[in-house]
Design brief:
The chain is of the alpha+beta class. It is built from ten helices and twelve strands. The radius of gyration is 23 Å and the shape is elongated. The relative contact order is 0.09.
Amino acid sequence: MPEHELLGTRLKGDLACIARAADAGIVSVAAAAKAMRTTRMEAAQRLAALAKAGWLARLRRGVYLVLPLEAASGTVTTVEDPWVLASVLYPPCYIGGWTAAEHWGLTEQLFRSTFVATSGNVRAREQVILGASFRLVRVKPGRLSNLARVWRGSNQVGISSPERTLIDAAIDPAWLGGFRHFADVFSTYIQSGKEEDVLLELGRSGTGAAAKRIGFLAEQLWPGASALISGAQDLKSTGVIKLEPASRRSGRMNTRWGVWVNVA
């Protein structure tokens, strides 16, 4: 058999092996090495050869997408599930912010990008990988604990719970696109009546600034949540913060909570 045919046969064998090891069509060098029972260096070389032949698409260094058989060589395609892709590209991480709010039915507003919180290195806050847009924020490793888990096909992906989503946004309203949308999401959540759950999450993963925003909003929107309001008072920090960090310091001062009400 000619050398080029032998090479083609080996590549097809590698592809079949890698496809079985892939999660949602995504495979890393480590997973490929384990599947092919070889070293990482050898696996990386074989993956590069498959990508050059048009069977794989390189997502980033060490991570590839197995292309559909009908895809033409070099054709840009889309990923099957951005959540699964995020868990492979940006570990350790979780789905949060507006994407989590959409998942839990806390908002009807649609966002183009998938919101990902990661403790890994982030070179750019906005990234587009094979048609999937990601908004990335870097967090401390401690904020990746006590996550909810959801199934995406055969894969489990970490996601912030409804309460965690609220507290994350109380720490930084930009996670929900700004304070106004955060207030809308909180208003929707109020219907669940789970003030104890919010207070527990606030004490576990919140900050003094988050307590200020949660307490202020609770008094405005949920005055009957006495335990939450009292707990937020105990947890709030000293000093003064802006309700909307992205807006200028204007409006009026609320001395009870130590916030500048700089947004309607």
